[in-house]
Amino acid sequence: MTTAGEIDELERHFVAAPGTFTTSPLYRALCPVVAQDRSTLELLTGRRPGQQASYLFFGAVHYLLLGGVRHPLREFYPSLVGASAADPAEAGPVLRDFCRRYRAELGQLVRTRLVQTNVVRRAVALRYALWVVGQRCPGPVHLVEVGSSAGVHLYVDRYRYLLGDQVFGPADARVTLDSRWLGRAPLPDLDDVPEIASRTGVDLNPVDVTDERERRWLRALVWPENQDAATLLDTALDGVLAEPPDVVAGDAVEVCPELGRRLPAGEPRVVFHAATRMHVPAARRAAFDRAIDSIGAGGPLYHVWQEPPSAPHRGHGADPRAELAMHGPDVDQVVPLLRVDGHLRWLGPLDITP
Question: So which domain of life are we looking at (predicted)?
């Protein structure tokens, strides 16, 4: 049964959420509307544990619109109507009407779907982290991504990177990622990274990219103004379709210990997750951390993450400057690496001011 406390928590979540949607004027405008709509907040109490309500709700609405639902709300979505999108400030009453008309469809999505963002540019952060790992360990390394969804980051070594005025990666890459480098000194040589001996994903619900509905869900989680990110996602998913990676279905708490035992004994492994731990229910986060640490029982473990400061690993206080951090086998302390934009539109050293 829904409690007043649950509704109050969801209201606070949506009141604070505009600060999250930095590149989506539409979602920033709609967050306060949802915060005051008790009927929609009640609907969101049916979501699976740990799922961030705002990402899930806006993804569900976007999914229905991308699927062809004809409603005036679509006129506010640049992903559907391009530059002619209506003023986000006028979208509130239209959203409320949409939620009334499609309550059953939204409820089904909220109850069954997971927030599985595939921000392809986050491979930039992983590429940098692999360079750091390579300074400590020449490799090859076994790459594991927890919360891998479709597995686009597992092909980090096959992408081309345009970072400021520097270029890394294969010249004939299918996917090219561009990002602003805010440091005064140039980046290190990000072509000097360890060879990847194997690549494995772990996900509660691995995405079948041959299923149009699954691809549409991933597309729906891209904010409607971010067409460049949507195009990158489509291209990266085509690459996954051509060569599907090994993605193990299941909860990381159960899967990771066995996965660690399967990797060749004594060989280094890199575990990466981005915006994943933040969706783990608070009561399970310690178990999540221990499960990842268990992968290091069979060989040197380099654990890399891009998570908000609100979700630090293993109880360590997060450096408020850095969302990209790691710890390795030679030191138990967390090592902050970079300041990064959540969607990797920019990155820079810890002492920069974006």
Answer: Bacteria
